[in-house]
Amino acid sequence: MKTSSFLFLVFFSMLSSATDITPAPVWEDGFSWEYQVTPSNGPQHTRTDTVISVEGNGYILQIEEAGKQRQAFYRKDGNLEASKIEYYKFPLTVGDSWKQEFEYTGQKNKKNYTAQVEVQVVAIERITTPAGEFDAFKIVSTMHYTQLDTSYRNKVVDTNWYAPKVRKTVRFESIDYGSADAKRTVLELIKCSLC
Question: To the nearest whole percent, how much of the chain has pLDDT over 90?
C-alpha cells in the first residue's frame, strides 16, 4: 500500500510539473495575431502578424502596423532574427534564466552602445486580454546599456506573457527608464486565428 501511494505521488508530481514546461511553437501558413499597441509616444493603433511562409529554419511574418507593411523572419525558436535579445529559450521552464552581452547601434541617433541582458522565466500567470483569458509564461528581460563614447547608462525592462495555446505573446510591456518619466509601451492581443 505504501509503495503504490508513493508511486502515485511521484506520477502526480510529474504530471503537475509538466505544465511548467512548453516546447517551441510550430506555426502554419495563415496563422494570425492582432494586437492593440499603446506606444509611449504616439497614437494607439493595431498591429497584425500573419504567417505567410514556413521555411526550414523559421517563419516569415507579414506585419501590418499603423498603415504600413513589412516582413520579418522568426527562427524556429520563436525569436526574431533581427533582434539581438533572445526572449525565448525553448523548452520554456519556470525558473530558467539566461544572460547575453552584445553591442548595437541606436536606430535613431546612430550611437554605439554595449548591453547586458538577463532574461528570467518567472512564473505562469492567468492573464486577461481583449482576446480572452490565457495561461501564460511571464518572461522578464532586464537590459542595462551604456553609450560607448559617454558615461550615459540606462535600463529597459520588458515583460512578455507567452501563451502556449496561441503559440505567441498575448501581452508585452516595455518600460524605458532613460528619462525623468519612464516611457511605457504596451502590446495586447485582440484576436487570433488560434483563439
Answer: 73
* Residue 111 structural domain: 24-192
pLDDT tens digit sequence for 137-190: 999 999 999 999 888 889 999 999 999 999 999 999 999 998 778 899 999 999
Whole-angstrom distance, CA of residue 3 vs CA of residue 110: 66
Q: Tell me, yes or no, whether 66 lies in a domain.
A: yes
Does some domain include residue 17? Answer: no
Distance of CA 93 to the CA centre of its chain: 14
- pLDDT mean over 114-137: 97
Per DSSP, the residues of 36-76 read EEE-SSS--EEEEEEEEEE-SSEEEEEEEETTEEEEEEEET
- Specify the pTM: 0.85
Q: Nearest CA to 122 among 134, 140, 135? A: 140
| Number of structural domains the chain divides into | 1
CATH of the domain at 116: 2.40.360
Is residue 3 assigned to a domain?
no
